[in-house]
Design brief:
alpha/beta; globular
Length: about 160
């Protein structure tokens, strides 16, 4: 239930978050991309190319630091919440894609995308929001376990 307090909707039940899993945020590019020849590439090296990403996270802005106009435009060149479009942008253009490593597992496994060696060090944490009452539900716990297994199984299958 939601209630309104001074014009802001708040939840009548306390919400807590349950950590589902962790992963690394990586930068990837199509096979043959010039950025793949770089070692421990920093933002000045990589922001010469457009980026494709789900959003501009504070950690990414901190990593990028002071940017000139072209670098700032490249950082925000393609932003989408559709991960298949992000992957496609990296496969079809010179864009560098950023995301949790599990998003690129299939394309990394078959060699169409490769990880760029960079100084970017950002974790990816996946959280489930629920209430204590709902967390006691076997269905909610099963959904959480299925979500974890889907990502873990995909990563394990790719490593095999």
């Amino acid at each position: 239930r939601l209630r309104t307090v001074t014009g802001v909707q708040t939840c009548a039940f306390p919400i807590f978050r349950k950590k589902m899993f962790e992963d690394a945020v990586i930068l990837v590019a199509r096979a043959g991309h010039p950025a793949l020849a770089l070692k421990d590439a920093g933002p000045r090296d990589l922001l010469r190319w457009p980026f494709a990403l789900p959003n501009v996270l504070p950690g990414l802005v901190q990593w990028a630091g002071e940017m000139d106009r072209e670098e700032a435009e490249n950082l925000k060149a393609f932003i989408s919440d559709d991960y298949s479009l992000i992957v496609d942008r990296a496969l079809q253009t010179d864009a560098i894609a950023m995301g949790a490593s599990f998003l690129f597992q299939d394309q990394l496994a078959d060699g169409r995308l490769e990880v760029i060696s960079s100084t970017l060090d950002m974790p990816y944490d996946c959280w489930m929001l629920t209430t204590a009452e709902r967390w006691r539900s076997p269905l909610i716990k099963a959904m959480a376990e299925l979500s974890k297994a889907a990502v873990t199984e995909k990563a394990l299958n790719a490593a095999a």
